[in-house]
Specification:
3-stranded mixed sheet; two-stranded antiparallel sheet
C-alpha cells in the first residue's frame, strides 16, 4: 500500500492529474531495496523512462511494478542481488532481469 501512498503524495504536490512516474518508481525501488532481507545485498537499477502518466494509470501501474520487483527480489535474484528494470519507451512492456 506504500506504492499507492507515493502516487497520492505525488498528486497532492501537482497542479494537474498527471504524475512523473519515474519519480514514483525511483522512490518505490529505493524503499523495496532498503527493506529487502537477503543474504546478498540488493541493488536496483532502472533504465528508460515512463514519463508522465494519468493518476489512475499511475496507481495501477505502480501496483504492477511493485509486485514484479517484490517477486524478483524474493524469488529471482539468486546470488547476484542485482535487479535491472528496463523501460523501453517505444514498447508498452517492462522487462526485469536478475
Amino acid at each position: 500500500m506504500g506504492t499507492i501512498a507515493l502516487v497520492h503524495e505525488t498528486l497532492s504536490q501537482a497542479f494537474d492529474e498527471t504524475v512523473d512516474f519515474d519519480e514514483i518508481v525511483a522512490r518505490g525501488l529505493a524503499d523495496m531495496v532498503e527493506v529487502a532481507t537477503r543474504e546478498v545485498p540488493v541493488r536496483a537499477e532502472r533504465s528508460g523512462s515512463f514519463g508522465r502518466l494519468r493518476a489512475e494509470d499511475a496507481t495501477a501501474l505502480a501496483m504492477v511494478v511493485t509486485e514484479l520487483v517484490h517477486n524478483a527480489i524474493k524469488h529471482g535474484l539468486a546470488h547476484t542481488g542485482e535487479l535491472s528494470a528496463s523501460v523501453p519507451r517505444a514498447a508498452a512492456t517492462i522487462k526485469t532481469s536478475s
